[in-house]
Amino acid sequence: MDNLSAEQREEVQEILHGRKSSEEVTAAIEDRLTAKRCCPHCGTEGAVKRGSANALTGTPLAQLRHKERWFDFAQALTDGDTVRASAGRCAVAVGTAFRWRHRFLRALKTSTAPLRGIVEADETFVLDSRKGDRHLDRPARKRGGKATKRGLSREQVPILVAADRSGTTLSAVLPGVSAQTIQAVLEPAIDKDALLVTDGAAVYPRCAADLGISHEALNQSAGERVRGELHIQTVNNRHQRLKAFLAPFHGIATKYLPNYLRWFLSVGLAAHPSSRACLNAALGLQPTVAVPS
Questions:
Q1: pTM of the entire predicted model
Q2: Are the beta carbons of 147 and 155 closer than 8 angstroms?
Q3: Average pLDDT for runs of 10 along the chain of length 293
Q4: Which of 241, 279, 238, 226 is nearest to 26 (CA)?
Q5: Is residue 241 exposed (0-12), middle (13-18) or buried (19+ Cβ within 10 Å)?
Q6: CA 289 to CA 269: how far, in whole Å?
Q7: 290 close to 119: Cβ distance less than 8 angstroms
Q8: CB contact at 8 A, 211 and 183
Q9: CB within 8 Å of 19: residues ≥ 6 apart
Q10: Cα-atom radius of gyration of the chain, to the nearest Å?
Q11: Which of helix, strand or coil describes residue 123?
């Protein structure tokens, strides 16, 4: 401590004793304000739309009130709180906490770091949910519920998960399982020298060929789960962790599922999730792991 300046000692004391929630939010917003703002067309720095702006202009967090409670709400997201628990923690209405949750999750900025080396890919499925829809074309289910048909059907929503051996992970809701839909997700994110490893699903050889990358398939129906360094255990582990992350919410409306995938990638897979990191990510100050925009 003797070698630190007065400002550095003050910063250390703040870290050791913790800042107030309002000070954390103010600091994060000021950090965003100092970031370069430029015109998307000509690149001129300092340009603002219609002549006025603040640090949150143009972000999903714009016009939200009670900024002094955002740090506590970021902590609620980090802890995986329910909407009701988040509302209690932040002393806001349940409807406000619900709105904040989806504003924050939509705001999460994500990395474009490519998937490299051996890349495992596979789909998992969750039950389609119309929670909150007042015009159902089928009988309503109880919380969570079960599909009425056995096996895969339109009642199941496919989620593609891909991961390389460094831990970089990508996930996306698919409109359907086909070579074209999987290619659309992987193409912006996978390195051209990557080796794609999958199970024996017929869509992947065509997808890999269209992407111009190498592909190896494991014949899991014949009991082949490992071939040398090749396996899909990493992505299967991601599936299990995703299902465990979603389970406490007892069924998520399908329209909000992309938001929950961002939440899972930024908090559920983080080695050391923190409320400050969550708040910074929502403000666009630091990216999380790879996921399509």
A1: 0.76
A2: yes
A3: 54 52 61 55 59 59 80 90 93 93 82 85 89 64 60 81 92 94 95 95 95 94 88 94 91 90 88 81 65 45
A4: 279
A5: middle
A6: 9
A7: no
A8: yes
A9: 27
A10: 22
A11: strand
